[in-house]
Amino acid sequence: MKKVSDTYKEQGIDFTFPIVIKDANGRETYYENSTGFWWRREYNANGNQTYHERGDGFWRKHEYNANGNQTYHVDSEGDWSKYEYDANGNQTYYEDSEGEKIGTPRSQSCAGKVIEVDGKKYKLKEL
């Protein structure tokens, strides 16, 4: 991405450092200082940061559910985490790229499965 200061120079626009750009909601979406360091951010309609990028090439993406809880993030170094929540917004599962797993993912839940014991069938319910 081209730095804002470079665009300003090409357009003949006077400016001073740091360059700070904010969106209509007052959230900083771009920052650049006099050493050339810069970053930019993007947000979703709920104000959650969905993307962050720095001038050194590092980036991070975030995803959220309808309740604003982060469900996934990944970055340019290959690190990622995913999260699951119950209906009350409580985190029920966490997994990351380093192999850490906490809780039971929904995809592995036994809720709704039918088992048979001594000829009788039972439908499992998650508590």
Indicate the topology.
Elements: H1 4-11, E1 19-22, E2 28-32, E3 38-43, E4 49-54, E5 59-64, E6 70-75, E7 80-85, E8 91-96, E9 101-103, E10 114-117, E11 120-123
Q: How many domains, in number, for the residues?
A: 1
Topology order in helix (H) and strand (E) letters: HEEEEEEEEEEE
Span between N and C termini? 49 Å
Which runs of at least 5 residues are low in confidence (pLDDT < 50)?
A: none
Number of helices: 1
Query: How many β-strand runs?
Result: 11
Largest sheet entry: 9 strands, antiparallel
What is the alpha-carbon Rg in Å?
23 Å
* Shape, principal axes of CA atoms: elongated
Description:
There is one protein chain. With 127 residues, the protein is mainly β. It has one domain. It is built from one helix and eleven strands. The chain has a nine-stranded antiparallel β-sheet with strand order 1-2-3-4-5-6-7-8-9, with no helix packed on it. Strand 8 and strand 9 form a beta hairpin. The longest helix is centred in the N-terminal third of the chain and has 8 residues. The mean pLDDT is 92.
Short description:
This protein is mainly beta and 127 residues long.
Index terms:
127 residues; mainly beta; elongated; 11 strands
